[in-house]
């Protein structure tokens, strides 16, 4: 699958592309194409992995989420995660193991004046509340990818529970936007 003239990608599924070739380059038109393709996926998200396979020790991805995308709160065991916002705005919500909010990072791209980068080095439950039409970010984590090393919060609804998701996100927006006393 061609994104731009400078990049080729193999489609793994509706949400994951794998960049091909010895030099991976991303340009503005690639991000525009990824945003368009995110609308075609059921969960309205897509990523292009710039690492060649799941066994790599370093994983780098350019990820696009449409506003309203539900990211079930989760934490990563034995991994760190770095995120750099390229376009859009998001509230990254961190929770303790019981589901209490411990921190909210109000983030946006560099020109927004908000935080545009974070690194999470400890296994901490987190989710994204996307506050712009699209969120485009560059994520780096250590590999290899092991699904068993991602732990989903037992107090958050599963992705298949759309009614539960809606209620959870309504409460989360209310709690994040609650005025400080």
Summarize the structure.
The protein has helices spanning 28-38, 162-176; strands spanning 2-4, 7-13, 16-20, 45-49, 58-66, 74-76, 81-87, 89-95, 101-108, 117-120, 125-130, 134-142, 150-152. With 181 residues, it is mainly beta.
Main sheet summary: 8 strands, mixed
**Could you estimate the helical fraction of the residues in percent?**
10-25%
String of helices and strands: EEEHEEEEEEEEEEH
Instruction: Please identify the structural class as seen in this structure.
Output: mainly beta
Number of helices: 2
Q: How would you sum up the global shape?
A: globular
Low-confidence stretches: none
* Radius of gyration (Å): 16 Å
- Reported by name, the CATH topology is Jelly Rolls
The structural domain count equals: 1
Arithmetic mean of pLDDT: 93
Output the strand order for the largest sheet: 1-2-3-4-5-12-7-10
Q: Label the CATH architecture.
A: Sandwich
The total strand number stands at 13
Name the CATH superfamily assignment.
Answer: Jelly Rolls
Q: Distance between termini?
A: 52 Å
CATH class: Mainly Beta
Tell me the fraction of residues in β-strands, as a range: 35-45%
